[in-house]
Amino acid sequence: MIEAITKIHTTSSSVTFECGNIAVIGNGEFRALSGKVDGFILYADTLRYENGAKLSRDEQGNLKCLYQHFVWNREDFIDWDI
What is the model's pTM? Predict the structure, then answer.
């Protein structure tokens, strides 16, 4: 089980969560409101480990909690929704 997110990398269509020696990758898209970026939509069914194995529902829920913890503990982090 993943214990913590250490870094998050995004592109216009994907997110990589670095979790120690494990990476989780997912697809998504930026959300805009009135022409400005308002968030990032991450598609849960695309979440997978680097080896291609998909995350279970429990693992997805755990990743969401870890993401919220990651955001709450970083003042310089720009929030986006999962």
Answer: 0.79
